[in-house]
From TrEMBL:
The active site is at residues 186, 201. It comes from the Bacteria. The keyword Transferase applies. Coiled coil: none annotated. Keywords: Cell shape, Cell wall biogenesis/degradation, Peptidoglycan synthesis, Signal, Transferase. This is L,D-TPase catalytic domain-containing protein. PROSITE patterns: LD_TPASE, TAT. Pathway: Cell wall biogenesis; peptidoglycan biosynthesis. GO terms for molecular function: peptidoglycan L,D-transpeptidase activity; transferase activity.
Length: 231
């Protein structure tokens, strides 16, 4: 097993989940639209998440805070309405944060493989472990949308290309590490929480993707399990 500075890696992953802040790879955040005065179905939950006064009534300040969140994460329409898509992203962030530094608590990712990259589709989280020891993460990821699901099961990294460009979508895929057909870990330039998801790849921030690049090698195991919400 490789020696790593575990505490620093875990802290970096958790910090990414806490920040209160997917659309095809390469998409850009939605442009700001007019703010709605309508109270959304998830008004109280969204107000609480954003640190707003929780009164269940839409205000101008509420709308602007919700709209900023929607714009950052490419949620459309971004009119400041506390609707199901916006709350779904926030709820996922809350559930990711609750995992803390023990993402394999249920033991679903194999612990008898040595170095392995785990992907929990249900929680949209990934991490690297050495046996039972957490080596890096967990970090939030963006996996395949409905109809382009990231395939589950035990796989292996079979090809790596740090400057890969998709031959299908003609967009950059930095730090690509392919593990199942055209599906790979790689970084994206948009939010990893942006709905509805990727075309099957496991999208990551540049920080996480570069760390995966430095820690994984051709032939290392990858285990994908669970089911992405909405697929």
């Amino acid at each position: 097993m490789r020696n790593i500075r575990r505490r620093g890696f875990v802290a970096a992953g958790i910090t990414a989940l806490v920040a209160p802040l997917t659309v095809a790879v390469g998409s850009t955040p939605a442009q700001a639209a007019s703010c709605t005065t309508q109270t959304g179905a998830y008004q109280k939950q969204v107000e609480k998440f954003l640190g707003r006064p929780v009164d269940g009534r839409q205000s101008v300040a509420d709308c602007k805070a919700i709209q900023a969140f929607q714009t950052k994460h490419s949620i459309s329409p971004n009119v400041g309405l506390a609707g199901p898509i916006t709350w779904g992203v926030m709820d996922l962030m809350n559930r990711q944060k609750a995992v803390g530094s023990n993402p394999n608590r249920a033991g679903k990712c194999p612990t008898n493989k040595g170095r392995i990259a785990c992907v929990d589709l249900t929680l949209q989280l990934s991490w690297i472990q050495d046996g039972r020891e957490l080596a890096y993460g967990p970090v939030p990821v963006r996996t395949g949308r409905n109809g382009y699901e990231t395939r589950t099961g035990l796989k292996k990294v079979y090809w790596r290309n740090i400057d890969h460009v998709s031959s299908i979508y003609h967009v950059p895929m930095p730090y690509s590490q392919f593990f199942d057909g055209g599906q790979a870990f790689h970084s994206v330039g948009i939010s990893v929480w942006a709905p509805p998801g990727s075309h099957g790849c496991v999208n990551m921030t540049k920080t996480a993707a570069s760390k995966y690049w430095s820690m994984l090698r051709k032939g290392d195991d990858v285990f994908v399990y669970g089911r992405k919400p909405g697929t």
